[in-house]
Specification:
The complex is a heterodimer of chains A (about 425) and B (about 325). Helices cover about 30% and strands about 25% of the residues of chain A. By secondary structure, chain A is of the alpha/beta class. Classes of the chains: A alpha/beta (about 425), B alpha/beta (about 325). The interface of A and B includes residues 197, 199, 311 and 313 of A.
Chain lengths: ~425, ~325
């Protein structure tokens, strides 16, 4: 299949290219110019960019198919222009055995949509006690190891896990939250939680855990990606750690770039997220750090939750929100608000996550995998349940009108989505 | 913009969910209406027909005797039919969801749901899903609010002190877990009390409590100085387990209301307590039964206030 994307605005953050032109695809790769295309797509007025790479999207398989299936979520991914995604290991059972990982990869591959990169469990059953067989899991296709949202309270296990991972060069992706300080909390410990009478999680639950983690990175040399920052304090610790040249990177969930605890309003369970939405000051620090590159990339933290999980009092509601289809428009909104060049904005969801993942996609360059998203920056997406392909229809952004609608998604040279 | 979920399109009280964000006029309307009902409870025939033919469902997802009983008495004095449901023991334990329970009861023609729930915000969730002619009255949700208790406290204060404009009010004890404290604080600040103090150790104060418009004291003696009103909160025994306090005795020593500490307040100060009291923990018997105590009148006023709330929401 030879594809010719004609006359679009080609934005390739990796090279800095932002110009109107053509993109040629052949044999699943970005190719040199050719004359005889099997299909010509008129991209006039559209933006042609590397397919999005989302470092955190829950597909709910195996085990949680009543919330979402691989089929529905892979459809959501490509509808959102996402061509590669990493899925956390908190499935049921968790991704702690090569067989499970292998099955997930096969199932995903058979669907011929986005590329799926499983993140293996760092500890058996995510219990935080025994290490998983990381080498085996890596062979089965795991790209990194993580505890997802399950705390690893035992710092000795954490230390050993980092030592072991560092020995073989396996990346470790961790969310930072002190399990004891966060115990029982459902919201940011601040004025809003005080007013609403919700049990809070103090900001220092994050900074203390991050301080511990950074010390262990210094001690072990492990390559660590810090997931879902939520506080201004953590941003500063990361900034200093990067100045120190520690081998770390980090991300933030798109919700936390736009929302804060004030958005809880009258106990809106759509805003029940992990980590909790924090103060305006935190939100602004995260949005700024993402622009400065202190935070490397932004993720959807896609977590399909059904209505039964959300039509509950705030503290009982299931945390999480759908996000695969909103990552692009919400990232564009963030970039617009900060007046960033489009290439800089898109870098946070293409070339930067590609670098962290260590994959060749995420750029439009000769011989790179032909994973491409083509979107209309002027068309608006109205966020209503019917518009979402994901089985999870719940998000704090319901009712928003967001600019940036995906027209074509191409994975390995195949058009897997068009609208 | 999301409308205040307690008010209808005309800005009238549709549900009573929290004292926070209610206009001063509505608070005053409730207190004035309650005033007119105090007489009813003292008459020989203690009934008025305002809610005749209406059904009040007491929906208690968390057990309570006192609050449920006072709501029941209040509804009966308004001539309503009262149905008590102790959900803690029934459908929820069978796995029925909160909204399913409410939908089922709604099908039985309810007019007012009086809701107590251990999760903050549960009455807001219910209020969003009931039919337009149905009303929700929050009888306590988690740590968030207990508006009828707050209103009866306001009523008691107004009864004895007339005007909020010059008052210094101290609320003492477990502010962190107290929905009573939150509801009273919002009411007092709305009605113009110039100084509201909270007195507690750091472990029993929520983050950023000053933002509620209160002054924080850790030293009870300093905090009680020249107070017109002293509100003592109940200290739950389980607080000793969460490493919040070492012992009831030590709490009593520093934050229990004794006669000599009360002497620091104004000579005409009143002492309140939402009950049930732990004598010898947060309050000494000499004070609880002493001349400054208005703890029993609070209970009586509570019925009039709940009558007022139910008659007002049902009329809107």
């Amino acid at each position: 299949m030879k594809l010719h994307l004609k006359g679009g605005r080609v934005v390739d953050p990796a090279s800095g290219r932002d110009s109107v032109g053509d993109v040629y695809i052949s044999d699943g790769k970005i190719a040199e110019e050719f004359s005889r295309a099997d299909r010509v797509i008129d991209a006039k007025g559209l933006v042609v960019t590397p397919g999005l790479i989302d470092l955190s999207a829950r597909l709910r398989e195996p085990g949680l198919e009543y919330k979402a299936t691989l089929e529905s979520e892979m459809h959501a991914a490509v509808a959102g222009g996402v061509t590669s995604l990493a899925c956390p290991p908190d499935t049921d059972p968790p991704l702690d055995e090569p067989g499970l990982v292998d099955m997930l990869r096969r199932r995903a591959k058979a669907l011929m949509r986005a590329r799926v990169y499983p993140i293996g469990a760092l500890t058996v059953k995510l219990r935080g006690e025994a290490l998983t067989e990381m080498a085996e899991l890596t062979q089965a296709g795991c790209v990194a190891f993580s505890q997802a949202n399950v705390p690893l309270a035992d710092t000795q296990v954490l230390w050993r896990a980092l030592q072991y991972a560092a020995t073989f060069g396996f990346p470790v992706w961790l969310r930072v939250e002190d399990a004891w300080l966060a115990k029982g909390g459902v919201s940011h410990d601040g004025e809003v939680a005080t007013r609403l009478g919700l049990p809070g999680i103090p900001s220092f639950a994050e900074t203390i855990a991050l301080g511990t983690l950074l010390e262990l990175v210094r001690a072990t040399g492990a390559r660590v990606h810090v997931c879902r920052l939520s506080t201004a304090g953590a941003v500063e610790l990361i900034r200093k750690a990067k100045e120190e040249r520690l081998p770390i990177s980090c991300d933030v969930a798109i919700h936390h770039v736009h929302l804060c605890d004030m958005d809880l309003g009258y106990f809106d369970s759509q805003c029940r997220l992990v980590p909790p939405l924090r103060s305006q000051r935190d939100r602004d620090a995260l949005a700024r750090a993402l622009a400065e590159g202190v935070i490397d990339c932004v993720v959807s933290d896609h977590t399909p939750v059904d209505d039964d999980g959300k039509h509950l009092p705030f503290d009982e509601a299931e945390p999480g929100a759908t996000g695969l289809e909103l990552l692009l428009p919400l990232t564009l909104k963030w970039g617009d608000a900060r007046k960033l060049p489009l290439a800089a904005t898109l870098a946070r969801i293409t070339s930067e996550p590609a670098r962290i993942l260590g994959v060749a996609s995420g750029r439009i360059a000769h011989d790179a995998p032909a994973d491409v998203a083509v979107f209309d920056p002027k068309a608006a997406l109205r966020v209503v349940p019917e518009a979402l392909k994901s089985q999870g229809k719940n998000t704090p952004f319901l009712g928003y009108e967001l600019g940036g609608k995906v027209r074509y998604t191409i994975v390995a040279g195949n058009v897997v989505y068009e609208a | 913009m999301q409308r205040n979920p307690q008010l209808n399109a005309n800005g009238e009280l549709q549900h009573l969910l929290s004292t926070e964000g209610l206009p001063r006029e509505i608070l005053t309307q409730i207190l004035d209406t309650a005033e007119s009902f105090v007489g009813v409870t003292e008459r020989e025939v203690r009934k008025v027909p305002l809610l005749r033919g209406k059904s009040v469902f007491n929906l208690f997802f968390e057990s309570s005797t006192r609050t449920r009983t006072t709501f029941e008495i209040a509804a009966k004095r308004l001539s309503a039919d009262v149905i008590n449901l102790n959900i803690a023991l029934s459908s929820q334990s069978k796995g029925e969801s909160l909204l399913d329970t409410v939908a089922n009861l709604s099908a039985m023609q309810a007019d007012i749901f009086v809701v107590r729930h251990n999760s903050a915000g549960a009455p807001f969730l219910i209020a969003r899903h009931v039919k337009p002619h149905e009303h929700v009255v929050n009888a306590g949700d988690g740590r968030h609010a207990h508006p009828t208790q707050g209103l009866l406290d306001l009523f008691t204060i107004r009864h004895y002190k007339k005007d909020f404009g010059k008052l210094t009010v101290a609320i003492v004890g477990d502010i962190l877990h107290s929905r009573v404290a939150r509801s009273l604080i919002h009411g007092l600040t709305t009605l113009g009390a110039p100084e509201v103090r909270v007195i507690a150790p750091q472990t029993l104060l929520p983050a950023g409590v000053e933002a509620l418009g209160v002054r924080v004291f850790h030293d009870m003696r300093a905090g009680l100085k020249d107070c017109d009103v002293v509100v003592m909160l109940r200290l739950q025994n389980e607080r000793m387990r969460g490493a919040l306090l070492p012992s009831a005795q030590e709490f009593n020593k520093h934050y229990g209301l004794t006669g000599d500490k009360l002497d620091l307040a104004r000579s005409d100060a009143i002492v309140m307590h939402p009950g049930p009291m732990n004598r010898g923990v947060e309050i000494d018997s000499t004070v609880a039964d002493g001349p400054h105590s208005v703890i029993l009148p609070q209970v009586t006023f509570g019925i009039a206030v709940r009558m007022a709330v139910m008659s007002i929401v049902a009329g809107n």
